[in-house]
User: Fold this.
Amino acid sequence: VDLRSLPILDNHAHPFDPSRSGERGGEMGDPTRDVYSFAREWSISLDPPARGMMENTLLVRRVIRDLAELLGCEERPETVVEVRDSLYRSDPAAYIRRLFDDAVIRSVLLDTGSPIPDDEGYEVRLADLAAMLPCEIQVIHRIEPSIRRLLQEMPPFDELVDRFLSSIDNAVDREGAVALKSVIAYWTGLDIHIRDEGEARRAYAAMLARGAPLPVWYRSREHVPDERVVREFLFVQAMLRAGERRIPVQVHTGFGDAPVIDMTTADPLLLRRVLNESALRDTTLVLVHAGYPWVEGSSFLANQYDNVYIDLSEMLPMAGPGAMPKIAAILEMAPVTKVMYGSDGFSIPETFWFSAREAKRALAQVLEDLHGRGWVTESEAWDIARGVLHDNGARLYAVPAAKESH
Ligand SMILES: [Zn+2]
Assistant:
């Protein structure tokens, strides 16, 4: 099975700014920029990796080989990075088009909660990016930036809740957001309790009385238990509103940015209270990053709960050669109609491209194996591939059909 020509809908990625590209590893054109800088883009750690770390992952080695093949240059890493830098710098739109066309990326859903000035120190103007991308884009609205702004201001409780819910309605009505996103895993962990309004009110009153310190990104859960209660309450409010608005909620599960993610509280199985809460059954929940490395748990949840879907982003491409066995594990129990391709593409366009390319390769290997063992017919294999790579996401997020060519 060769899936290379199939269209891609990337259901979870981030805006990027070509003029800042390479920011994490030095500006392009900077003489100190080298293979290290490019390799560094493939680490999800917030701390810069040491030289020789990322360059020696199988992932980065393969990205460089695949890029050499696409660009028709020799495989020496220094040459590949030099060629790609010069192409990207001289005509970013053309370079992006080359990558996106190669991977047949038709539609990208962008989580606009990162980058933002509060965290990364800059933001990307979507109109500028849209003008440069050869595909459709849709917006995913992250709830934590609104929560942060509100907790910095600390209005009375009722106003807090009203303004929070309005921020969701505004995103849906004005920006056309097709999903909400939450990174509550970073703040409270996924062991989320269902808090009633009285509990949330009391916790918030305690925060007000204390003259709560400004919440520090990711790091408050250790010492601010009231804030945890308020965040859990607001998360459930967002789920309820998403259910009313008929849009899914993408929830970060599994691995994330070291050193701030507490991996011991990011297993998707910890979501049991949220999943068993009858009031939340009408809200679709997407397990972003497939709960990697706990993908069997995600597969189980998608099998057991009607409202649970699985996104493959960040696992693709970061799991490297693990893409194939992990996709196979996800298809053990999850309905094949509930698994969706995503890249978590960020910072440089190659993350979108390589992820899609590897998704097709790995999925093809999984489907060939399943076919060989009598688990799927050939036509089923093609349906599953079209679904995972594009159609399941298009259906779930009601994304309009992408233009056929450009
Ligand atoms: Zn993301």
Summary: The chain is about 50% helix and 10% strand. The two ends are 26 Å apart (CA to CA).
